[in-house]
Amino acid sequence: MKRFLVSIAIMAGITTAYAQKKLVLYFSETGTTKTVALELQKQLGADIEAIQPEEPYSGNFQETVQRAQREKQSGTTPAIKPLKVKIADYDIIFLGYPIWSGSYASPIASLIKQNDFAGKTIVPFCSFGSGGLNTSTADLKKALPKATIKEGYGVRTARVAAVEKELDRFLKENGYKKGTVTKLPEFSAQKPVTDAEKAIFNEACSSYQFPLGTPSTVGKRTTPDGTEYKFTVQSNGGFGGGGSSIIYVVVGKEAGAKPEFTQVVR
Ligand SMILES: Cc1cc2nc3c(=O)[nH]c(=O)nc-3n(C[C@H](O)[C@H](O)[C@H](O)COP(=O)(O)O)c2cc1C
Q: Of ligand 1's atoms, which has the minimum distance to the CA of residue 240?
């Protein structure tokens, strides 16, 4: 009986996510998303392909903003080169992109138009100046109603050094890679921020190129690496507009560790 149960468990294991055929498919203009894609490929042992616009983007922020605006106004998306891989050969596609104007970069819209993702599992991953994982994931769900869009991974351009460790946790937590990780506790309930917490928020956020707002309440949790804060912030305009947002901040446990914000959720 025991042997029977063990073999059932092994058979069940074969169908789990880590055993499925995986592809890392990404667009990157200036290399940050590419760094995440290469780390994913390494940790998963997956196939990888870059999405290539026929006319490459220049790598200049202002020029790309203007080109993206022109494309949006004219209702077009950039022509991209045909993929070398066949999407049909894969079960899980890790789909990567930079966040442009709050969502996935426009070459992803071209990819979606030209390829069939019905029945596929998509794991989004992205890099961004401040945030956009959740909005881009919601937009992918709308654009690909016949695919299963899973919870994704996102990293700020300024925190790309954290990718290797964060991906290891993300992939194990979600069963894409073998191994276990200790589950992180929930954040404590939101409470009005103290002066000390306000100082941590300011140290993490004040050097960012756009104003990120004023924190009103905060919840915390202790992790194996330090302390994480979940601030509720009243935005005061800036990149992404007004209203309220959630901003996550981490402070490493080593002495003198500088607070860093990990993402803005609008
Ligand atoms: C046209 C354009 C629009 C952008 N819009 C946003 C945005 O809305 N939010 C954000 O956090 N970052 C934004 N960024 C910053 C990029 O998401 C960030 O630099 C990203 O890491 C670039 O990835 P890549 O190096 O793979 O191209 C934008 C960058 C460009 C070029």
A: 8
